[in-house]
From TrEMBL:
This is ARAD1A14894p. Gene3D superfamilies: Zn(2)-C6 fungal-type DNA-binding domain. One of its GO terms (biological process) is DNA-templated transcription. Keywords: DNA-binding, Metal-binding, Nucleus, Transcription, Transcription regulation, Zinc. The keyword Transcription regulation applies. It comes from Blastobotrys adeninivorans (Yeast). InterPro entries: Amide_Lactam_Regulators, XnlR_reg_dom, Zn2-C6_fun-type_DNA-bd_sf, Zn2Cys6_DnaBD. The lineage of its organism: Eukaryota, Fungi, Dikarya, Ascomycota, Saccharomycotina. SMART domains: Fungal_trans, GAL4. It comes from the Eukaryota. Residues 12-43 form the Zn(2)-C6 fungal-type domain. GO terms for molecular function: DNA binding; DNA-binding transcription factor activity, RNA polymerase II-specific; zinc ion binding. Residues 38-83 are annotated as: Disordered. Residues 68-83 have a biased composition (Basic and acidic residues).
Length: 587
C-alpha cells in the first residue's frame, strides 16, 4: 500500500473554516480545491489569533490515518464566536475611504443620533445609513449539514413556493420575487429563507401538497419546517440581515405554547429590533441606495408594523413600535414596483389592487397606533375622553372617504383585498369605541352601539371571505374576527333584549363556523372555539371542577373569571390588564 501523505494547510480559508473542513489554501493557493469545486470566487485566509508560523521546517509529516466517522458539531460556529473590534473599525474605514458606490441593503447599518459614532462621523458628513462589510450569506456553510436540513423533493417544494406566492406574498410582499427566482434557479437560496417560506406556505397550501411531502398533517409539516428554520437561525449561519428579518416575520405565524419564549410576539419584536438596527424606521431619502432597495425596505418595515399592531392587540401586549421615533416615508402605490413578476407560475403574478391595499393599510396602521397607545396607560390614565375619541373617529372617517376605488369595499364587495381592508378598518373602529372597563358601561352609551355594529359587519365580511377561499385569508384577519367575537359575546350576555342577545348568539355561531373551517390555517382557531363553547355553559357550583376540564391553558384566574363573567369579558378590550388573556395565555 502506498504511503499516502495529506498536505494540510497551515491556515484555512474562511469558507472551509466555517464548514470545519480541511483546506489546502496555503498549498495550492487561492482559491483552494474545495472553493474551486463549489464555484466560490472569494477565498481568503481565516485570520488566526495565534499569528502565522512558518511550518516548512517542522518534523516529517505523519502517515495519514484512515478517517473515522465524523460527527457534526450541533452547536455550529455560533457557540464559539467572540467579540471582534475589527467589525466596528470597518465602519470608520468605509467612511474615510468615501466610496461612491451604492449601499447594498444586505450590508446596511444605521447610526442613530445618540450613538458616539454618529457624532464622530458627523464631522465627515456621513450619518444615518451606511454600509458594513461582511453581510453576505453563509448558506454554503449550512449545506454541510444537509442531512438535517433537507428540503422536500422538487415537485413538493415548488408546490409550496407557489402556494406561498399566491396566498401569503400578496399580503406580505416582503420578498423580491425576481431575486428569489434567480437564486432558486441557481440552487443558491438561503436555507433559512427556504424553510421559513415553506413553513408559512403550510398554513395555506392544499392538503395534497402536505401529503406529497410525506407529512400526515399540517401541524406536522409546520413543525418540521419551523424547527429547521429555527435551527439555522439559532446558529447564526445566515449573515444577510434582510433575509433574517423576512424569516422572522414569517416565523411569527408560529403560535407555540402559552409559556413558550418563542411565540408570535417574540419573532415580531426580534424582527423589529433588527430592522431598527438597519435604520428601516428612518427616512432613506439621503441614503446612497438603489430605488428598488429603498422601496423593499419601506414595504418590509410597514408590514412589520402592521403585524406588530395586530398581534399586540390580539394578545393584549403593547406594540413594539413607537412612531414618535420614526420618520420613514409612508407607503405609496409605486413602492410595490420593486416586486416585478418573474414570469413563472410558481412565483405567481402580482395584482394591481395589492399596491393600493398596502398603501392604505400602512396609513391605517399609523392611525390605529394613535388609538392604542393612550389606552396602554396604567389604570386607563390615557387620554380616552369623548373629545379625543371623536377626533380619532374623525380621522378614520376622513381616511375612509379617500380610499381608492381599487380597494373600496362599497364598490368591490367581492375583492379579497377590499374585504380584508374593511375588516381591519372595522377592527380598529371597535378599539376606538370600546370601553376601558366595566365601569364605563352604560345602557345609553352610543359608543357601544358603534362597536357592536362594527363587530356585526366584520362577521359579514369574514363570511364573504370564507366563501371566496378560507385558505387565502391572511393570518391577521382571523385576529380581527376574534375581537368581533368578544364584542358579540359581551352583548349576548349583558343585553336586556332577548332579540339583540339572540342575534349576537347567531353571529357568534357564524364566527365559530368560520374558525372551524380555518383549523390548520390559523393555529389559534381551535382553542378559541373551545373557549366560546365553554362560555356558553352555565356556571358550575364547584369552580375547581371547571379548572380541570377547561380546554385551554389554565391559571387560578379562572375562578374569578367565572364569578364575574361580564366584567372579565369587558376588560378583554383593555390590553395588558384583563382576565381573559391571563386565562388563555397563563400570564
Amino acid at each position: 500500500m502506498d504511503d499516502q501523505r495529506y498536505e494540510r494547510s497551515a491556515r484555512a480559508c474562511k469558507a472551509c473554516h466555517a464548514s470545519k473542513m480541511r483546506c489546502d489554501l496555503m498549498t495550492v493557493g487561492a482559491p483552494c480545491t474545495r472553493c474551486q469545486r463549489r464555484g466560490f470566487s472569494s477565498c481568503e485566509p481565516f485570520p488566526s489569533r495565534r499569528g502565522f508560523q512558518d511550518q516548512n521546517g517542522r518534523a516529517p509529516k505523519r502517515q495519514r490515518k484512515s478517517p473515522g466517522p465524523k460527527e457534526v458539531d450541533a452547536r455550529g460556529d455560533g457557540s464559539k464566536k467572540h467579540f471582534n473590534g475589527e467589525s466596528w473599525e470597518k465602519i470608520i474605514d468605509l467612511v474615510q475611504k468615501q466610496k461612491s458606490s451604492k449601499i447594498d441593503k444586505s450590508t446596511l447599518i444605521f447610526l442613530g443620533e445618540s450613538s458616539p459614532l454618529y457624532h464622530l462621523l458627523n464631522t465627515q458628513k456621513e450619518r444615518g445609513h451606511t454600509a458594513l462589510a461582511g453581510g453576505t450569506s453563509t448558506s454554503e456553510a449550512v449545506s454541510e449539514l444537509s442531512e438535517y436540513l433537507q428540503l422536500p423533493k422538487r415537485p413538493t417544494l415548488e408546490a409550496l413556493f407557489q402556494s406561498y406566492f399566491e396566498t401569503v406574498h400578496p399580503f406580505y410582499p416582503i420578498i423580491n420575487r425576481v431575486w428569489f427566482a434567480s437564486l432558486y434557479r441557481e440552487s443558491k437560496l438561503p436555507f433559512l429563507l427556504s424553510h421559513a417560506v415553506c413553513f408559512a406556505a403550510c398554513f395555506h397550501c392544499p392538503m395534497v401538497t402536505i401529503e406529497s411531502g410525506g407529512f400526515g398533517s399540517r401541524a406536522e409539516a409546520k413543525s418540521y419546517f419551523y424547527s429547521r428554520a429555527k435551527y439555522i437561525f439559532d446558529r447564526d449561519y445566515e449573515r444577510d440581515k434582510i433575509v433574517v428579518i423576512i424569516a422572522c416575520l414569517l416565523l411569527s405565524f408560529w403560535v407555540g405554547e402559552p409559556g413558550d419564549a418563542w411565540n408570535s410576539r417574540a419573532w415580531v419584536s426580534l424582527a423589529l429590533t433588527m430592522a431598527e438596527d438597519l435604520g428601516m424606521h428612518r427616512t432613506t431619502a439621503r441614503a446612497n441606495m438603489s430605488t428598488a432597495d429603498k422601496c423593499q425596505l419601506r414595504v418590509l418595515w410597514w408590514c412589520l408594523c402592521s403585524r406588530d399592531l395586530i398581534t399586540s392587540c390580539t394578545l393584549g401586549r403593547p406594540p413594539r413600535v413607537f412612531f414618535g421615533r420614526c420618520n420613514v416615508e409612508p407607503l405609496t402605490e409605486r413602492d410595490l414596483d420593486f416586486d416585478t413578476d418573474p414570469g413563472e407560475p410558481i412565483f405567481a403574478y402580482r395584482k394591481e389592487e395589492s399596491a393600493y391595499y398596502h398603501a392604505e393599510a400602512s396609513r391605517l396602521t399609523l392611525l390605529m397606533h394613535d388609538v392604542v397607545m393612550p389606552r396602554l396607560e396604567p389604570k386607563g390614565a390615557g387620554n380616552t375622553g369623548y373629545d379625543n375619541v371623536q377626533n380619532q373617529w374623525n380621522e378614520f372617517a376622513k381616511w375612509k372617504r379617500n380610499i381608492p376605488d381599487q380597494v373600496n369595499w362599497d364598490k368591490h364587495g367581492n375583492s379579497m383585498f377590499a374585504l380584508c381592508l374593511q375588516i381591519m378598518y372595522l377592527h380598529h373602529t371597535i378599539y376606538i369605541f370600546r370601553p376601558n372597563s366595566i365601569s364605563d358601561l352604560s345602557g345609553d352609551d352610543q359608543s357601544l352601539d358603534k362597536s357592536l355594529s362594527a363587530a356585526a359587519e366584520i362577521v359579514l365580511a369574514a363570511n364573504k371571505l370564507s366563501m371566496l377561499s378560507i385558505a387565502r385569508i391572511p393570518q391577521d384577519i382571523f385576529a380581527c374576527l376574534f375581537m368581533a367575537m368578544v364584542v358579540l359575546a359581551l352583548e349576548s350576555k349583558s343585553s336586556e333584549s332577548n332579540t339583540s342577545a339572540g342575534i349576537c348568539a347567531t353571529q357568534l355561531e357564524i364566527c365559530k363556523h368560520i374558525l372551524s373551517q380555518a383549523e390548520g390555517h390559523w393555529d389559534h382557531a381551535v382553542w378559541i372555539i373551545k373557549l366560546f363553547d365553554r362560555l356558553k355553559e352555565p356556571k358550575q357550583e364547584d369552580p375547581q371542577s371547571e379548572v380541570k376540564e377547561f380546554p385551554g391553558p389554565l391559571t387560578p384566574a379562572l375562578d374569578s373569571y367565572y364569578s364575574d363573567f361580564e366584567s372579565s369579558l369587558a376588560d378583554s378590550f383593555v390590553p395588558e390588564a384583563n382576565e381573559l388573556y391571563k386565562i388563555i395565555f397563563g400570564n
